[in-house]
Design brief:
It is built from six helices and eight strands, in the order βααββαβαβαββαβ. It is globular. By secondary structure, the chain is of the alpha+beta class. The protein has a single domain, classed as Aminopeptidase, CATH 3.40.630.
Length: 188
């Protein structure tokens, strides 16, 4: 069983949107307000516009598991205002909108997407892989801790968005995993 990480194309926007809606409904059924309007998440229309820009800017990737789209991740060097300092942004890649299709949960798709972010950080000579997680989603915080991330801090009140839990992992901590991880293929 093979996981392939490839650059997203505009034709993948439907898949990215479907994954976001699927996960939002799944989270809501478990009592989370993540990505909902009530929780101050981006409305799906705004999300699609943002995802479209990220795809055009070559910042979004698709994970395929045995040929089927199984997840997505956006990686760049930007974050919402007042989350990370300019110095923290300059020395990191920032993960956004990592979503794994529920059909492929437990197959290591999230780990492969995170490892891909680390590979990009290495290529860009960045010391850190950073992300902001939904502040109230403690299960998500636990997931990132299990994936080797540490909670840097909860952003202060000047950061007004719903994702203020700031996690980071040193890029160097992936070195053994990125050189031995199988089966992960990367397509140009």
């Amino acid at each position: 069983m093979t996981t392939l990480i490839r650059q997203a194309r505009l034709a993948d926007l439907g898949t990215v949107s479907r994954l976001r809606l699927q996960r939002t409904h799944w989270l809501a059924a478990r009592g989370s307000d993540q990505w909902t309007r009530a929780g101050r998440g981006l409305p799906i229309e705004t999300f699609i516009r943002s995802a479209s820009r990220s795809v055009r800017d070559n910042e979004t990737w698709i994970a395929e598991f045995n040929g089927d789209p199984a997840g997505t991740i956006t990686i760049n060097d930007r974050a919402d205002e007042n989350l990370w300092s300019p110095g923290e942004l300059a020395d990191a890649v920032i993960i956004h909108f990592m979503i794994v299709d529920l059909r492929f949960a437990g197959h290591g798709i999230g780990g492969a997407l995170l490892a891909h972010a680390a590979e990009l950080a290495l290529e860009r000579h960045r010391t850190w892989v950073r992300l902001d997680a939904w502040t109230t989603n403690l299960a998500l915080h636990d997931y990132y801790r299990r994936a080797g991330f540490s909670l840097a801090r909860i952003a202060g009140p000047e950061a007004t968005g719903p994702s203020r839990a700031l996690f980071e992992r040193p890029t160097a901590s992936w070195l053994p995993a990125t050189t031995t991880q199988l089966p992960l293929a990367r397509q140009p």
